[in-house]
Structures are given as C-alpha cells and as structure tokens.
Amino acid sequence: MVRCLYALTAALAVNAVVAQEGNPLQSANCRIALDALQTQEAAAAALSRSGSQTEGRERRPVHAELEKARRHAAIACLGGRADLPPPSGRFAQPPITVAPIRIAPAPPPQLPAGPMPPLLKKVEPPTLVTACDLGGCWASDGSRLQRAGPNLLGPRGLCRVQGALLHCPP
To answer: Is the pTM of this model over 0.70?
Structure first.
C-alpha cells in the first residue's frame, strides 16, 4: 500500500513538471515579451504625463510600438497565430437602421354582381303535444286534437305522435 502511494506521488510530480514545461505563461519567450511590453507602457505613460503639444507627433510612433508589443506578448504568453490581422479596436458596431415595413391594407372583398340568392325559408318549430285528457290533446301551436281510438285527429287529418312530437298532415 505504501509503495502504491509513493508511485502515485512520483507520477503526479512528473506530470506537474511536464505540464509546467508546456505552459506558455511560464516560458522564457513570454517573460521577454512581457518585459518589452512593460518598457513600452512606461514610455507611453511618461509621454502622456509630459503632455506638451510638440510631442503630439512623437505619440503616434510610441503608441504603434505599444500595440506591437501587446500583440507580441499576447502571442508569446497566450498562444495564437501571428498571421491574424490586428483587431480593429472597435468591437461594438452601430445599430443598423432599417426602414419600417409598410403593409398595404387588403382591398375589401368584391361581392358578386349577379342577383342575390334567395333567403332561406323560415323553419317553423316542431309541434309538440303539451297536455292530454280523455277527449283529446292540446298542441303547442294552440290547436285541439280529438282522440279517435289510439290516434289523434287534427284539423287536416289523422296525426301521428312520436313521444311528445306531433306529425300532422299539411
């Protein structure tokens, strides 16, 4: 068990050494690039503190060198490719304006020019048997139906009864 623990500790130590060798932040190139960047930043800070008008022409080359040093440090320390173009310095873009969309209203539907179709005929509600006595029954339209045996006799002839629904001849 103890041997296994020693072997595991040794493996972790070797892995840590190998991982540090591959770490670009710990490399000599990164330290050199960071030192150069700090030198350029100090020069730019000293130039901005002096603030004289005659040095305005000198500021442009110093700022160009500062950008170059920043790019070189980023490539050396963070990895990346040197063939990529430098960033434009402007990541946000202005909003795009688009003209409002105008939707024309739909034209009103055209009615056919021909004659109007005939209106539907009014449907009469069905006639129902409302009450009955020994002599006959009353209908929902107010008519009296006489009893003729098991059938009912209406004003126009013999009527049939299905439940409460009454069918008389027209």
So the answer is: no
